[in-house]
Amino acid sequence: MEYSEKVMEHFANPHNVGKLDDANGIGEVGNAKCGDIMKMYLKIEDDIIKDVKFNTYGCASAIATSSMATDLIKGKPVSEALKLTNKAVVEALDGLPAVKIHCSVLAEQAIKAALADYYKRQGIDPEPIVGKLSECEHDDACALK
Asked: In the annotation, is 142 catalytic?
């Protein structure tokens, strides 16, 4: 299996690893079939993602996509984070092997789950903003959107 240089770089030296004790949005997603689990922590102030951390249990692609996804949303408005797609994460990593695309879907889902948690804590129904969160399995649901 061939990995891009960027995937290997983010796997070997992932960015934004850890836990935020003052997070006001936390999301955890997993894929039971492959065992990947991602947990995202967001610190949002004035509608800006001031800080983001993650803990991921999984393969090189799962760790690399978590790292890249956090880089892509850190310091950005929530509205931009809501638009982040797994395709953008894959492109930022210069591609992923087809059998590992589901990892990028998990990264997108983890961010959306954390944003949904943030809105729930504000007393706002997250579904109209974030959309319906779904579990991703190894099937067509994991294809690039």
From this structure: no
